[in-house]
Design brief:
The chain is an all-alpha fold and about 240 residues long. It has nine helices and no strands.
């Protein structure tokens, strides 16, 4: 009895701990990409303008314009991209659905062959394929997973992607503008806040990846700092030339 209880406890512990994060929901990539892009692009835009002109107003206007334009552009791009991807997947699912309806036996044999290729005994593979093919929707889901590598019930949402991208970009792009809105008259407070934001974003991303927080943060800090430095130099060069 003690052995049975121990095994049951281990099973419950495994069930409770063996969970996976949502890696296919359609919000993480646009949110992370939007925040990083907002920070880097708006910081680079503002440093470029600051390098070419000494006017505080011009830098603030450029930052706010970059925030608005970038946020709407990112949202529109994400919506169109994810919607097109989803439509392509749905078109392929329709093809598979028609094949299941017109040639059910051939599709059943195809599924059995897939299981055999993965090491299942032929007779068992045929029996599993036969049982799984009884329900057309279940058969469609299995064929989609095995042949297309997708889950028909977990397709990314264009709206979620667009809203995530818009909000994240706007938040990231706001950071370098914020010191100016609070009264700063030079570029360096904006650069400092933006670089700290880049490091924080990189460190936060590490929470959902296998990278260490300091490596991810420093990598993003270096990339954003390099972009800002290059655009500042170009702005200074063009400002002098004009």
């Amino acid at each position: 009895m003690a052995i049975i209880d121990t095994e049951a406890a281990l099973h419950v512990a495994h069930r409770d701990n063996h969970t996976h994060r949502d890696v296919n929901g359609g919000w993480l990539r646009p949110a992370v990409f939007g925040a990083m892009d907002g920070l880097v692009s708006n910081l680079a835009l503002m440093t470029g303008v600051a390098g070419g002109t000494a006017g505080r107003e011009a830098v603030v206007i450029a930052g706010l314009a970059g925030l608005a334009a970038g946020a709407f552009s990112m949202a529109a791009g994400e919506y169109t991209s994810v919607a097109s991807q989803r439509e392509l997947v749905e078109a392929e699912l329709d093809v598979e659905r028609r094949e299941l309806r017109k040639h059910p036996k051939d599709e059943e044999k195809e599924l059995a062959a897939l299981y055999e290729a993965r090491g299942v005994e032929p007779e068992l593979a045929r029996e599993v394929a036969r049982q799984l093919s009884h329900d057309p929707e279940q058969a469609l889901e299995i064929h989609a997973r095995e042949e297309l590598g997708i889950d028909p019930g977990d397709l990314p949402s264009p709206t979620v992607a667009a809203v995530s991208s818009f909000g994240a970009f706007a938040l990231g792009a706001l950071l370098p503008v914020l010191p100016y809105l609070l009264g700063a008259s030079t570029l360096w407070p904006a650069v400092l806040v933006a670089l700290l934001g880049l490091f924080a974003c990189g460190a936060l991303v590490a929470k959902v990846t296998a990278r260490s927080w300091w490596f991810s943060g420093l990598r993003q800090l270096a990339l954003g700092g390099a972009a800002a430095g290059v655009t500042y130099a170009l702005g200074t060069l063009f400002g002098a030339a004009v």
